[in-house]
Design brief:
Layout (H helix, E strand, L loop, with lengths): L3 E14 L2 E14 L3 E5 L6 H8 L7 E10 L2 E2 L5 H8 L3 E4 L13 H12 L5 H14 L16 H14 L4 E5 L7 H18 L2 E5 L3 H7 L2 E6 L2 E7 H6 L4 H8 L49 E4 L2 E3 L14
Parallel strand pairs: 3-8, 3-9, 6-7, 7-8
Antiparallel strand pairs: 1-2, 1-4, 4-5, 9-10, 10-12, 11-12
Helix pairs in contact: 3-4, 3-5, 4-5, 5-6
This protein binds iron/sulfur cluster.
Iron/sulfur cluster binds next to helix 9.
Length: about 325
């Protein structure tokens, strides 16, 4: 794909456990397009957060990237040294975590977080200029500039999330991976945060991967959506297409399970079963024990991700390899 900013190829991540190796990410390949917001969704434990961390090579023991390529900026990130990777993480790649308090030093003022970052990456900048830039950044993110002398605990959850975004902007990051950034926010703050992300994407030419279990957030903000199940990519495509006509039965079930205010009195759809223990994933398509449309081949062979519509790929045996739908 020509407009890919970042390409993941055949990525696998394993965790060593007492039950044996657990494949949290299993042979995943996809592209992230420049300037898009890609929503990465799936149930808890499907591997989406592990995938986000692996993309920045932030997997720590007992986890390990066991194979694949991470193509960004003309490099396979898997071939970079830890030092080179740290430098890239501190410049072109940023991460925003669910709880910003885990990333912000509680005894450091907000201004110190920002100016240290700016000074570390712009060697010619003076301390005064870095402070001015830090003030401008927080103000752009809707925080009064005099608040930069506060400590993280004096900020609300939404403000701390905005500080994390300010840090990524201070670095001029190309790609920001945000892991459940709205989980701790109330709906009003969440809506404002999503509006802000959209504005920043356009203003700063950002590319954003939004990892979330909240389908509503993806509908609100994403250009494309990627659906994971049991460590594999089940479906990826244009968000309107996937939401209107999901291909993969898991994606279909996930979307049908979202409460809809217009379905007055109707019972909410509930998918049968639960995701598998990743130490013992079923053979073939790991969704087959729960799938209402399973075919004989499904319990035997793993389907690969293939293009079915113009901007929609799925890994499901319901679709043949001629990029034509053969069953619905
Ligand atoms: Fe269902 Fe088979 Fe498709 Fe898996 S491959 S989602 S079991 S139809």
């Amino acid at each position: 794909m020509t407009d890919a900013l970042y390409s993941v190829r055949n990525l696998s991540v394993e965790y060593g456990t007492r039950q044996g190796p657990v494949k949290a990410v299993n042979d995943v390949s996809f592209d992230i397009r420049k300037n898009e917001i890609l929503g990465l969704v799936g149930e808890s434990g499907c591997g989406k957060s592990t995938l986000g961390k692996a993309m920045l090579r932030m997997i720590t023991k007992p986890g390990e990237i066991t194979g694949g390529q991470l193509l960004f900026g003309g490099h396979d990130l898997m071939t970079l040294s830890s030092r080179e990777m740290r430098s890239l993480r501190g410049s072109r790649l940023g991460m925003v975590f669910q709880d910003p308090m885990t990333s912000l030093n509680p005894v450091q003022r907000i201004v110190d977080h920002l100016t240290e970052t700016i000074l570390a990456h712009e060697k010619t900048t003076t301390a005064a200029a870095a402070r001015t830039r830090a003030s401008e950044l927080v103000e752009r993110l809707g925080i009064r500039r005099e608040r930069i002398d506060d400590y993280p605990h004096q900020f609300s959850g939404g403000m701390r999330q905005r500080v994390m975004i300010a840090l990524a902007l201070a670095l001029h990051a190309d790609l920001v991976i945000a892991d459940e950034p709205t989980t701790s926010l109330d709906v009003i703050v969440e809506a404002k945060f999503l509006d802000l992300l959209r504005e920043l994407r356009d203003e700063f030419d950002l590319t954003i991967v939004m990892i979330t279990h909240n389908i509503g957030v993806v509908a609100e903000i994403a250009d494309r959506v990627a659906v994971m199940y049991a460590g594999r990519m089940a479906e990826i495509g244009d968000v309107r297409e996937v939401f209107a006509r999901p291909l993969h039965p898991y994606a279909e079930g996930l979307l049908k399970s979202v409460p809809n205010i217009e379905l007055d009195g109707q019972e909410l759809y509930k998918m049968d079963g639960s995701p598998p223990n990743l130490a013992f994933t079923p053979p073939g398509c790991s969704f087959h024990p729960r799938c209402p449309k399973a075919l004989p081949i499904c319990s035997d062979q793993v389907p690969v991700l293939r293009s079915v519509r113009a901007d929609q790929e799925t890994a499901c045996w319901l679709y043949d390899d001629q990029t034509v739908e053969i069953a619905r």
